[in-house]
Amino acid sequence: MKAQDVIILGAGIIGMSSAYYLQKNNPGKKILVVDREPGAGQGNTAKAAAMFRNTFSSRTSQVLSDTSINFYSHLQNEVNYDIHLKKTGYLWLLGRRQFREYSSIIRRMMEREIEIRILKKDELNKIPKLNLELNKNHEETKYLGLENIHKGLLGSKCGELDQSELVRFYREEFEKLGGETLFNTKIHRLIITPKNEFGGPPFVWQNPKITGVTTNNGEIYGNRIVLATGAYTHELLDPIGIDNHSKPKKRQLFQLECSDLEELLFVKNFNEHGILPFTILPKSEVYIKPDETTKRFWTGCADDLGRPFSLDVTPEKSFYEFNIRPIITKYFPQFENARIANKLAGLYACNTIDGNPYVFEEYGLIVISGCSGSGIMKADAIGRIVDALYRKKEEAELYGSVMFRVSDISTEKRNVENEEFVI
Ligand SMILES: Cc1cc2nc3c(=O)[nH]c(=O)nc-3n(C[C@H](O)[C@H](O)[C@H](O)COP(=O)(O)OP(=O)(O)OC[C@H]3O[C@@H](n4cnc5c(N)ncnc54)[C@H](O)[C@@H]3O)c2cc1C
């Protein structure tokens, strides 16, 4: 294959948004996206709940998501590209203790004019059969340490979209501009050049650089390489001694079905669509996501301690039965008879230090990592930052002419606050 100006490794939402902005702002450059899957967006992007929110505690995550949401809304409403975006909202149901703990984050969000509203019990009472007050004499309730619901926190610039349509947009636009894709191509390793005279890794004084990849379809060389392999990034970087500052962890989703749930899907008062917002329960951040089309609910919950960093993606029915079900059914008794209609598991690329993404360059390789379960909602901004780094700009122009210092999410000059609102 002919040498490229840029090779993008990984055709997930991050690889495709980066590909689009790189091709758009560097016309005439030969840019190739490579992925082992038969098409774009078929890795962890396809497994996501595809929710978006701008309700983050750190300024960085908030700006990355807020500007991306503005771009996605522009696509939906002005470009008329249907990514099925709906601002159905995020609703945190909070116990008294939790509300106290979150108060400084809520205050910070209000100071930044993030669109949030605190809901009192009379508004929450409109949600069918929601148990605001739990039966404290109930053995299991005590055992699980469940709190009564004290307040709600509603984020209105939040909602859902169809990630496959969003990926399709970036891919189509990238290809219209002359960009190329190569699928069904597994990348085995990154090529470092020059090789030393014995054929091994370069001597330290040879100014080594990463110049290509070996794949099942042969070697591909490029002037610059963008590594957008998400949760799998360490597989390519560990062997050459570069740290990607992120680790893979399994996250699961279960789709629940039961005729008792239908009433809960359509709730007025919270958004213009008359759908229950994505709702997070007061314990262990168990969440439910209404699925209007199938009339079912998706549920999930992030388990941290005891869940190893690994590439395992086998969904576990028992995880629902023993972790999620006991909590959900206490607050929403209508889930009592629900059965699992579908289940899936994917990987978060967890940044274990500050919860924000990384975009950095080493030896001619631009690495994106640590999207920590919110890569789709930040993908537009990240793609623009990758392009700015490629063009050696200090600042990236995010959607709506918001300027963002590229080095703020780098490794060397990192300047981010800790993100405390990772779900
Ligand atoms: C259960 C779950 C729920 C989630 N919910 C949300 C949500 O509601 N909102 C949100 O914003 N985010 C959510 N996320 C996170 C979101 O899925 C990720 O942040 C996002 O998809 C990351 O995109 P990516 O392009 O980095 O990774 P991926 O989509 O995984 O793309 C990486 C690509 O690299 C390719 N690749 C990797 N290694 C190789 C190799 N050696 N050779 C060739 N190709 C390779 C893969 O095939 C893949 O296509 C969720 C994730 C999970 C698991």
CATH hierarchy, class of the largest domain: Alpha Beta
**Approximate helicity band:** 25-40%
Q: How far apart lie the N and C ends?
A: 42 Å
Mean pLDDT: 96
The value of Rg in angstroms is 22 Å
Query: What gross morphology would you assign?
Result: elongated
What is the fold named in CATH at topology level of the largest domain?
A: FAD/NAD(P)-binding domain
Helix count? 11
CATH architecture label of the largest domain = 3-Layer(bba) Sandwich
The tally of domains stands at: 2
Please report which band the strand proportion falls in: under 5%, 5-15%, 15-25%, 25-35%, 35-45% or over 45%: 25-35%
Question: Could you describe the largest sheet, including whether it forms a barrel?
Answer: 8 strands, mixed
Bound molecules: flavin-adenine dinucleotide
State the low-pLDDT regions, or none.
none
CATH homologous group name of the largest domain = FAD/NAD(P)-binding domain
Content-based structural category? alpha+beta
Number of strands: 20
Q: Which terms summarize this structure?
A:
20 strands; 26% strand; 8-stranded mixed β-sheet; binds flavin-adenine dinucleotide; 423 residues; FAD/NAD(P)-binding domain; 11 helices; alpha+beta; 2 domains; single chain; D-Amino Acid Oxidase, Chain A, domain 2
Description:
- With 423 residues, this protein is of the alpha+beta class.
- The chain has two domains: 187 residues, FAD/NAD(P)-binding domain, CATH 3.50.50; 169 residues, D-Amino Acid Oxidase, subunit A, domain 2 (D-Amino Acid Oxidase, Chain A, domain 2, 2-Layer Sandwich), CATH 3.30.9.10.
- The protein has eleven helices and 20 strands.
- The strands form four sheets. Strands 1, 2, 8, 9, 10, 11, 17 and 18 form an eight-stranded mixed β-sheet that branches.
- Strand 17 and strand 18 form a beta hairpin.
- The radius of gyration is 22 Å and the shape is elongated.
- The structure holds flavin-adenine dinucleotide (FAD).
- The site of flavin-adenine dinucleotide has 37 residues, from helix 1, helix 2, strand 12, strand 16 and helix 11.
